Amino acid sequence: MIRLDDIGHWFRSERWLFRHLSMAVVPSEITAILGPNGTGKTTLLRALCGTLAVKEGSVHASEHIGYVPQALNADQAYSAVEMVLLGRSRFLGRFHAPGRRDTDRAHECLAEVGLSAIAEQRYDRLSGGQRQLVLLARALASDCRVLVLDEPASALDLANQGVVLRLIQRLARSRGLSVIFTTHHPDHALGIASNTLLMLRDAQHLYGPAGSVLTDDNLARMYGVPVRRVDVRSGGETVSAIVPLHGLSPAGPAAN
Amino acid sequence: MRWAALMWFLAAVLLLSVLCATASGRYQVPFAKVFAILAAHLVDVTSTWSPTDKIVVETVRLPRVLMAAVAGVGLALCGAVLQGLFRNPLVGPQTIGASSGAALGGVVAILFFGFGVYVYVGAFAGAALALLAVLAIHRSDSISPVLTLVLAGVVVSAFCAALVGLATYVADPETKLSDIVFWLLGSFGSATWQNLALISICTGVAAAVLFGMRWRINVLSLGDEEARTLGVHPARDRLILLAATCLAISAQVAVSGAIGWVGLIIPNLARMLVGADHRRLLPASALMGAIFLVIADTLARALTAAEIPVGIVTAIVGTPVFAILLRRNAKSRAT
Amino acid sequence: MPVFYSELMFLFRATLVRCDVRMIGRVGVTAIILAIVIGRASAADITDQRGHTIHLDKPAERTVFLPIPAAATYIAIDGTERHIVGMNPYSASAMREGILGKMFPGAAGISTNVVMGGGDANNFTPNVESILAMRPDVVFQWARASTDVIGVLDRAGLAVLGMRAGSQEDFAAYVAMMGEVSGKGERAASLVQRQQDVRSRIETAMADVQAQQRPRVMYLNRAAQMLRVSGKGTYNDFYVRLTGGQNVAADLRAVSTVTIEQILTWNPQVILLGNFDATMPADIYGDPRWQGVDAVKAHRVYRMPLGGYRWDPPSQESALTWIWLAGLLQPERAQEDLRAAMRDWYTFLYGHALTDSEIDGILFAAQNRASAGYERYLAR
């Protein structure tokens, strides 16, 4: 469980990034954070992880937080299982190296994300999707109760986006993790999040259940682009999607 | 499995190199006699050698060869740790300015106190200050470009070298100057059992710390932000690691002057063989560094009647290897 | 006169071809003495050891010496230090540490700002502006091939005399030059003749020395951090052979750096420590790496004396060097009383009466007394 109490933060220019922000994520719950660039999503994540001290308010985390960064940076020459093993570091003293138990745990976590087959391959030789999953396994290996992910599906193709999101959902349910993730895709929030936080300009924000927060008006206000929520029936299920109305048409920009 | 086999192999090569080095030199002592002289400490062997043979092997050569090995261990370990800490394979004790700083500190100590214990202290202070200067120029944030670190090292090294030049200008020419100049060139020629003990202790302590923190170096090599999220305090760990590398580098410079290239190329070669995980990289680098410097020193002293400074031998071997590594680095980034 | 001159020169060159050292010595030096005497008539034109000629109207009042042994030799010939305005810092240090500074106290005030800094003992690059500021009548410099070292002085418009060292003939030639420059040509000739007399006596005494009776001698120019020896063609090599020894480093060129292993291979029987660093016999005896050397086992390591100048390079006191060394290398054949010879020479050179303690100081009696055979040089 992780709770933010009335937090606020600004940088050098004394321009508030967010203020009076309160939020709680209980076990098995998934919260999505959306917002255009520059609204403080990354700063909020750092505050959640505890690597940033907020100027106002407080962050309460009852357990260790597992952080999953974006898998952009591919210059680590360690093997996949070694990367996962790094997640065990918080249990190791300064002069200790991982033991048998740590290695077993690392393999378990790799198996949970379905990557046992590539355990010995070099991290920088894996695909984007695989790297993201390795980083997820790393966070799991730290025996965290809270999972914080930074745009976990943004750099991936459609298929891998689905893989990652389904995995997050499964982990939240089966392990009772509190999950927070940021995304640029409102569809992702609609798909798996119970609550959503919208970061707006001028330190404004909207927080609440995904269904009620992710309205056409709110999203249009946040992104500055009109959108339409569309529900699609597929195989007995209703899938929601957010369609941005950029004014594009196959024949060219709309004449005005 | 492969790694363990490689370690045993390297250890065997090191032992063989030390034996061959102890049997090489201008003064001819056959290999069998060398072996017998050494073995006589363990088992009863009838004496077939002259007292001078024994002096050459035990007092002139053996401390020197062992010192080269210890220095190789120290420099290679420091290079590996620095490359991991700064996430940059172009970093080494000399490119980060620590060797030049140690040389400057040593020269200042010699000017004021002569050759003695204060050289160690001076070298350590010099290395630490140079390293601080480099860190101040380069913000150790993960966003900074890799190039700034190398450039900062070049600048600090150049500054230290200029000050060393000034110090030699000012030095009392009758007593201190040529000795300083000769010391700066880098040589194991002044090796005795006493200063071997000193450098061994310093390098041993440093190696224990560095090897102990081998996993932490892995974590730190991800960058400060990620390291923090993994439950580690990067600043404190980095300080301990840098202090230990300063200790090893300054002890080596104090005893044998500035020797470059070992700390730069050996870890890169080791990484090609055993991978980037520092649990495997550190021991491999240490052994390979020892072997390299033992061979380099043997060449330096046995090729001609006069002694070639060992730093020249390591440079002659090191620079082309470094050029090749640069090319490979560029190619792998391009793919 | 010219005919006589060229016949002498022909004889000189002919003997060179035959490579008979003693013949060259005698003939060459005689030729030079004659040249000095003959040359007195044209004292205003002086030819140096490069073949360049300069013109002096009268004896020089302001002289500058870049080569290290030169200043002390000039003082001995000129009889005073007042005509020297610049000299090498290593010359100054020898005067300070040795007795010349006491005999000629004004020497302490002579400027040493004549070479470019970083004063390595092998650096003779002149500080041209500084020398020009001294307004010298004559500048003495090594006659090396490099124009940086001597040509630059010529181009600056100075009157430059190039010197060579390495053999007794070279020494005699530049002493002759100094005689002409100072107007004390007779004194210069006298100095050369006296040295020649001592040399002849020693050569006679050593005439029957067999090759195997010559001890293996090693001269160490430096022994502290690095080991530097003198090979063939050096002045050290010359007098080691003169006084009945053989130079272990004779195969190497002039000044070479060697390793301890090379020394152990040579295994010298006598070691001479030069005056360019502070190493004393006790340092060698106490060093474990040297224990295998014959010279250490037999306690035949000697610090070379420092008198009016260092006794290891060529100097006005070189005859004393030869007597000193002959007595250590071939004690039965060397009959001269060193202490008496020293008193005699110092009276001639400096007009100074040596005391016993001064002699002990010059001979490094305290540091050398533990070495074999040195009792003969200690005060009775």
Describe the protein.
- The complex is a heterotrimer of chains A (256), B (335) and C (380).
- With 256 residues, chain A is of the alpha/beta class.
- Chain A contains eight helices and eleven strands.
- Chain A has helices spanning 41-49, 80-85, 100-112, 128-141, 158-175, 186-192, 210-213, 216-223, and strands spanning 2-10, 16-25, 30-34, 56-61, 65-68, 146-149, 178-183, 195-199, 205-209, 227-234, 237-244.
- Chain A is globular, with a radius of gyration of 19 Å.
- The longest helix of chain B is centred in the first third of the chain and has 35 residues, at 51-85.
- The two termini of chain B are 30 Å apart.
- In chain C, 45% of the residues lie in helices and 12% in strands.
- Chain C is built from 17 helices and twelve strands.
- In chain C, strands 7, 8, 9, 10, 11 and 12 form a six-stranded mixed sheet that branches. Chain C has a four-stranded parallel sheet with strand order 4-3-5-6, sandwiched between helices. A two-stranded antiparallel ribbon of chain C has the order 1-2.
- The model of chain C is unreliable at 1-5 (pLDDT under 50).
- Chains in contact: A-B, B-C.
- The B-C interface holds B 25-28, 50-52, 55-56, 59-61, 115, 168-169, 173-175, 177-179, 181-183, 189-190, 192, 301, 305-307 and C 89-90, 93, 117-121, 222, 224-226, 252, 256-262, 264-265, 267, 276-278, 288-289, 291-293.
